[in-house]
Structures are given as C-alpha cells and as structure tokens.
Amino acid sequence: MIRARITGTGSYMPEKILTNFDIEKMVDTSNDWIVARTGIEERRIAAEGEYTSDLATRAAERALEMAGVAASEIDLIVLGTITGDYPWPATACIVQKNLGADNAYAYDLSAACSGFVYALSCASDFIQSGRGKKALVLGAETLSRIIDWQDRNTCVLFGDGAGAVILEAGEEGDEDGILSSHMHSDGSYLDLLYQPGFGTRHMPNAETLEDRLPYLKMEGNEVFKVAVRSLTSVSLEALQANNLNADDVSLFIPHQANKRILEATAKRVKLKDEQVYINVHKYGNTSGATIPVAMDEAYRGGLLKKGDLVLLSAFGGGFTWGSTMIRWSM
Ligand code: ACO
Question: Whose CA is closest to atom 11 on ligand 1?
Fold first, then answer.
C-alpha cells in the first residue's frame, strides 16, 4: 500500500493582535472571565484588504518551501474553510492562481472546524488511490469577519489564520505517513452552531442584518458537551483502529477551540499534559486553521521527529468531527 506522507508544513498568522483587554473595551467582558472559561489570551485579526486567500497563499508558500516542491508539481489543492473570499467560486482556485499551481485542480471543503482533517482525508485518499502524487492541503479562515462583535458570548472565542501541509506519495511498504482517517457528521445539531443569514435560505439584507443573522451563532454550553464527547470517541477510534494505546502517542494535536475542551478530552483519552499541543492562548479558535497551524509550530519548534505518532482530532459545526493518525515522515 502507498501512503500519503507529510513532507512540508507552513502557517501564516496576521500581524494584528487583539488582546482580551482590547475586547474589554468593546463588550461587557473581562480578561479574567475569558482566560478562566477558554484559556484564550489573544487572537490575530486579518488586516483590511487581507483575505482568506492571502493567508492561505502565504501558508502554502512556506509549506512548499519546506517540502522543496514547486507549485507546478501539485496535483490537487483542498482548502478547508467556512470564510472563503466568496461563497463561490472556491477560494482554493484563488490560491492556485496566486501560487501558479497550474497543474492542480482545486476545491474548498466546508466542514467548519473539522475542515482541515476532512481535507486531509480527501487528499490522502487521492494519493493512496494513485490518482496523483502531490497535494496541498490547507485550513484558512478570517472568522473575524463573520463574528458578531456585539455578542460577548462568541466574539471572545475566535481569530484568523492559515496553515498548510504538502502531502506526497510514499514508497510501497513505507511505514510512515497517514495511517488512518475517521470522519463523522450529524446534521441534527445544525442550529447549535451556524451562520443563519449568509446563504440562499436567508440572504443578507437590511432585515436579516437587523436580526444579526449574517453572523456566527452558537449555543456554547451545548456545543461544549457534544465537542468533548465526540473528540473523545473519535480519538479512541483512531487508537483502536491502529492497535495503539494513549501512551504510544507522541503528540496529540486537537482542534484548538477552548483549553477546557482540550483538557477534558485529553483526560478522557488518558493522554498526559506533555502529550497535548496547545496554542489556543495565542490565537483563539481559528476553526479549520487550528490544526495545520499547530502542526507547523510543533514541527518547527522541534517537538516532532521522524517516526513519531501524531494524533489529530477535530470537532465543529455541522456537527462534523474526525481524527487522523500519522506516523511523522520528517
Ligand atoms: N464575558 C463575560 N460573561 C460572559 C461572556 C463573556 N465573554 N460570555 C458569556 N458570558 C456570561 C453568560 O451571559 C452567562 O451569564 P448568565 O449566567 O448571567 O446568563 C455566563 O457568562 C455563563 O455562560 P455560559 O455560556 O454558561 O458559560 P460557559 O461556562 O459555558 O462558557 C463558553 C461559555 C466559553 C462559550 C463555553 O461554553 C465554550 O467554550 N463552549 C464551546 C464553544 C466552542 O468553543 N465553540 C467553537 C466552535 S466548535 C468547536 O470549535 C469545538
């Protein structure tokens, strides 16, 4: 069997930092409340004129550089995002043009915070099937543009950013690469986390704007419970499918939603603190971007070496959730 291997990672975070103290001046909240409930201290905000495609392009350039792969060698680009530059066409096509990846076909994938692991699963299948040899997989968001900055329940949680990986076909019999992907969805929870007024059901207009419908809505408490349950079950599913124990995992890189969700999940999966990568304090929840950004930081920071077992788990709107087990290739 030929596995897909990660041969390059990259990320890009906008320069502007918005701290909890800045948000204290915008809504009725406090740094203490935000840190205690979420672990978030600050987040990045895209500059005016800086779009999801721009963040994604920069992250992709860094991943291509690390892999030593030319953009023209890429066969497929998949971008997990819910904040594309336009509802359509795909932001992945803009990234393709920016990079000059003329031989790739490109599409966006909408699975909210699970967007990156879903995209990774598609690209891994593409390579395993032999249809192509090299893929660029991205998670990129400018959530700051769909946040209701008048709603303290949600505006403290999210941020902007982008991460990317290059996937390449390994050799027959290689033991490293993507070992497994397990993806799930349940549409019955739609209205616990969604953007009601930005599609063809409720087109944005003066009336929907008055009701704040074009912005992200979330029942945080309910989402929290299902998130912990789903992240736990899908992480255990990955361990079981690969005949592994929690102790075997070198690094657990979960979707960075909220420190309490991560800690509760790690405890249930029986992972120790030092096995869990957390950067939510710096960036907040960047939805589809959290996992590739964290992977890039962890690798560049020397936390990952060839042969390490890396477990990714994500949960997001839909609901969608999924896990990926990787034997690290670099
Ligand atoms: N500052 C101060 N008070 C606030 C704020 C705020 N920013 N936001 C809410 N409150 C208040 C509420 O109004 C409520 O007040 P009340 O009791 O007078 O009504 C009180 O704080 C408690 O609110 P809860 O919603 O019960 O607080 P909770 O402990 O559940 O924490 C939070 C809220 C942080 C949103 C939590 O539910 C959470 O993290 N949920 C997960 C949501 C998430 O991360 N979603 C991301 C997308 S999905 C994913 O990525 C996993």
Answer: 153
pLDDT (tens digit, 9 = 90+) per residue, 222-280?
Answer: 999 999 999 999 999 999 999 999 999 999 999 999 999 999 999 999 999 999 999 99
Active site residue 285: yes
- Measured CA to CA, the distance from residue 105 to residue 96 in angstroms comes to 8
Q: Report the residue among 19, 224, 229 best suited for mutation to probe ligand 1: largest number of ligand atoms under 8 A from its CB.
A: 224
CATH class of 4-169: alpha beta
Q: Whose CA is nearest to atom 26 of ligand 1?
A: 221
Fold matches, 4-169 and 177-327: yes
Q: How many CA atoms lie within 13 A of 106 on its CB side?
A: 27
Residues with CB under 6 A from ligand 1: 29, 33-34, 37-38, 113, 152-153, 156-157, 193, 218, 220-221, 223-224, 227, 255, 257-258, 261, 285, 315-316
Cα-to-centroid distance, 139 and ligand 1 (Å): 25
Known active-site residue 113:
yes
Domain ranges of the chain: 4-169, 177-327
Catalytic residue among 20, 155, 182, 285: 285
Which CATH code is given to the segment(s) 177-327?
3.40.47.10
Concerning whether 255 is annotated as a catalytic residue, the answer is yes
Q: Which two tokens stand for residue 281?
A: 């304090």
Q: Which of 4, 1, 316 is nearest to 181 (CA)?
A: 4
The model carries a pTM of 0.97
Could you read off the pLDDT of 275-310 as tens digits, one per residue? 999 999 999 999 999 999 999 999 999 999 999 999
